Amino acid sequence: MSNTANPDFGAFFSPTPTQDTDLLQQLPFLPGLQELLLLRQVHGLEHATVWILDEMSKTQNRPTDSDLLGGLSTEQGFYLYGEVNPLHLQKAVPEALQRLQNGEWNLALHPRCGTNMSVALLLTTGLALGTSFLLPRTPFEQLLGIGLAGFMANQLAPDMGNLTQRFITTAIPYNVAIQKISRTTDFWGRPASFIQVSWHEG
Fold first, then answer.
1. 197 beta partners
2. Smallest Cα–Cα separation from 173: which of 89, 97, 90, 94?
3. Between 48 and which of 107, 142, 163, 191 could a Cys-Cys bridge form, CB atoms 3.0 to 4.6 Å apart?
4. Pairing of strands 176-185, 191-199
5. Cβ atoms within 10 Å of 193's Cβ, excluding its own
6. Can you give the pLDDT at residue 62?
7. pTM of the predicted model as reported, rounded to 2 decimal places
8. 130-139 tens-digit pLDDT
9. Who's near 80: CB < 8 A, 6+ residues apart?
10. From the centroid of its chain, how far is CA 129?
């Protein structure tokens, strides 16, 4: 997957700066809608930040550490786990935000996102149950069905995970304002960097 803009991202629709603000104005009675919309935008910013950190590692001829990075998005910001140079992070977050807003939408998607793993698990489970129901109950046919289900899920999961990220779990952070970047601990006491954000009308 490229970490640059992909024209296919907007094949079904192109994100617009006011889409989430407009949705909030149309559905003001839905509780938690703004938090949900902000969470999707933060998730996209988290992915883009990891891409930028990876780019910075490569341009400085340093061993890339982005494969060791993990993230957790909340409606208040995102945690970034792993060893990150604080100066690089201070530069990467606003650059990621700017590049996303300027049209590099595919930076919001990442192949190691938990969404992909969840989609793969759901596909495997669904296909395995479906083949188990449809095929005869003999051990050979059931094992064959499970193997076929696993193979099909493995083929479908990357594209399905990508689509799920694109249209459900991430969004372009047009309403995100970066407030603070600091070292802290998460809910479970694990050390992490935290990028605090707030809703910005834009």
1. 178
2. 97
3. 107
4. antiparallel
5. 23
6. 65
7. 0.87
8. 988 888 888 8
9. 46, 49, 50, 69, 70, 71, 89, 192, 193, 194, 195
10. 28
Of 171, 48, 173, 163, nearest to 115 by C-alpha is 163
d(CA 202, CA 191): 32
- Render pLDDT for 23-58 as a digit per residue (tens, 0 to 9): 999 999 999 999 999 999 999 999 999 999 999 988
Distances (CA, A) of 130 to 93, 118, 124: 43, 18, 10
Number of residues written out for the chain: 202
Ramachandran angles phi, psi of 178, nearest 5°: -75, 125
Which residue from 160, 165, 166 is spatially nearest to 13, judged by alpha carbons? Answer: 166
Lowest mean pLDDT among 19-33, 34-48, 69-83, 142-156: 142-156
Distance CA 122, CA 37 (A): 24
